[in-house]
Design a protein that fits this description.
Elements (H helix, E strand, L loop, with lengths): L9 H8 L1 H10 L4 E2 H8 L3 H13 L3 E6 L2 E6 L1 H37 L2
Antiparallel strand pairs: 1-3, 2-3
Helix pairs in contact: 3-4
């Protein structure tokens, strides 16, 4: 095992591990929202929501746009593309291992079938 994580920022996973932040990401999946809308939908106080939004923004997960006296948050696609590539790398490894196992089992079966 190489310990190699191409392009994967493990702090991203840490930011997403907190349940309120993951709930915010789930909410924003459907489109941009203001701090007030996020706080209301999740039953959080606005300062709590703002704290979580700052963490997500600091980790590059969200973009924020100021409109008058409101801040509108939306998801950035890049961190999720990186996360998808990282997860895909595990899937590729597992598929290779299953292919090797299949090949090995076929060899055993052919040896068993020989008189």
């Amino acid at each position: 095992m190489s310990g190699h994580n191409p392009g994967m920022d493990m702090a991203l996973l840490g930011a997403l591990a907190e349940p309120n932040r993951m709930n915010i990401v789930e909410l924003l999946r459907d489109g941009p929202l203001t701090v007030g809308e996020i706080a209301e939908q999740l039953g959080l106080r606005q300062p709590q929501a703002s704290k979580h939004l700052k963490v997500l923004s600091d980790h590059g997960i969200l973009d924020v746009k100021a409109e008058a006296n409101r801040r509108i948050y939306k998801l950035r696609p890049e961190p999720f593309q990186t996360l998808d590539e990282w997860v895909q790398s595990f899937q590729n490894i597992m598929e290779d291992r299953f292919d090797n196992l299949d090949h090995y089992l076929r060899e055993l079966q052919s040896k068993k079938d020989k008189p």
